[in-house]
Amino acid sequence: MPTHEHWQSEPEEHDFPAAEAYLSLVLPEPVAAELVEALKTAPLVHRKAKDLLRASGLPLLTDENKHVSADLRKVEKGEALSPVLLVRGDAIRRLPLLVADGYHRICASYHLDENADVPCRMVDAPG
């Protein structure tokens, strides 16, 4: 098994509707739509898999999770993963980082190397 993953330079087109579907569960739909539009043009940044999990407060999914294992198989085949889509948290307001799309990819990356840099598009939380 390769010890690191390869990443695409751009998110896949279907990641944006998936992000909006999730965000519309935790934010008003117009705000979710606005954030997704911002994510479409946000610059690519890199953050460590372990830090993304810590900031989001989400648990590490096991490598037996079907989505995580599918991503690990992609890595094994040399296929590139799509960057993750994030909404920055706010420690002052006690808001965690929101993983709008790519939670399973973060977990797969962590299983390979918790210090791996994960490419992300990130926008600020609504104020």
Question: Can you summarize this structure?
Answer:
By secondary structure, the protein is α/β, with parallel strands linked by helices. 43% of the residues lie in helices and 20% in strands. The chain has one domain (6-124): Alpha-Beta Complex (Conserved hypothetical protein from pyrococcus furiosus pfu- 392566-001, ParB domain).
| Biggest sheet character | 4 strands, mixed
Count of alpha/pi helices? 5
Query: Shape, please?
Result: globular
Shape-level CATH architecture: Alpha-Beta Complex
> How much is the radius of gyration in Å?
14 Å
CATH topology: Conserved hypothetical protein from pyrococcus furiosus pfu- 392566-001, ParB domain
Mean pLDDT: 95
Low-confidence sequence ranges: none
Proportion of residues in extended strands: 15-25%
SSE pattern = EHHEHHEEEHE
Assign the structural class, choosing from mainly alpha, mainly beta, alpha/beta, alpha+beta, or little secondary structure: alpha/beta
Compute the number of structural domains.
1
| Number of DSSP E strands | 6
Q: Compute the separation of the termini in Å.
A: 43 Å
Q: SSE layout and pairings?
A:
Elements: E1 6-7, H1 15-26, H2 29-41, E2 44-48, H3 49-56, H4 66-77, E3 80-81, E4 84-88, E5 98-101, H5 103-112, E6 117-124
Parallel strand pairs: 1-3, 4-6
Antiparallel strand pairs: 2-6, 4-5
Describe this structure in words.
The N and C termini lie far apart (43 Å). A four-stranded mixed beta sheet has the order 2-6-4-5, sandwiched between helices. Helices cover 43% and strands 20% of the residues. It has 127 residues and is α/β, with parallel strands linked by helices. It has five helices and six strands.
